[in-house]
Amino acid sequence: MWVWLAVSFSALLHINAAYRGPQWQFYLFKPLTIVLLLATTLQFGHGDIYQQWIIAGLLCSVAGDIFLMLPKDKFVPGLTSFLLAHIVYSLAFWNELSGPIVWWLPALLMGAGIIVYLLLLPSLGRLALPVGVYIGVIIQMTWAAGEYWLTTRTGSGLAAFAGAMVFLVSDTLLALDRFRGRFRAATGSIMTTYYLAQSLLVVSVLLR
């Protein structure tokens, strides 16, 4: 209970600082929130390979957070860090399948991904290929999480799928804000969904 209050408080402090300052609070609590989730996973996980993959994804996410919040925004290194995070999360999910996969889920997710990519494409310029690859990887990660839930019907699988879906929403909001025009509620919406997504992935470890 207390650890989730700490995570929520840390996330709230970061989001508040994004709008009102101070700057040190913005820089401190963005990665600290994920570090708290990482510590929770290390302390309460069961030491299996699934936990190890989620830990690796959280570490990549901390690196991505740091790159994206630097005064001189390192977007490509940040994108690469989160790309690696989604890959290792995918490995965690695919490793848990215990039955035949379904094909309607990737079809739906791919259709949504293509629509988002086409909306972004006119503004992407030289980032068209990296962003396209990133969208493909996160769609695949969400598919993997969905298969984990559909083939196991466990609480862990449901938390993983919910986390992946919320991550998809968060990254879509981030892309729209960055490439289609900024909006005031962007930071609050992006970071709330981002922290919720990562928290759900940690819950998927704790429910095993």
Automatic annotation (TrEMBL):
InterPro entries listed in its UniProt record: TMEM86B-like
Keywords: Membrane, Transmembrane, Transmembrane helix
Topological type in the membrane: Multi-pass membrane protein
Main location per the UniProt record: membrane
Keyword Transmembrane included in the entry's annotation: yes
Domain of life: Bacteria
Subcellular location: Membrane
GO terms of molecular function: hydrolase activity
Transmembrane intervals: 50-68, 75-95, 101-120, 127-146, 158-176, 188-207
One Gene Ontology term, aspect cellular component: membrane
Family: Belongs to the TMEM86 family.
Stored PANTHER family: GH04784P
Name of this chain's protein: Lysoplasmalogenase
Source organism per UniProt: Photobacterium halotolerans
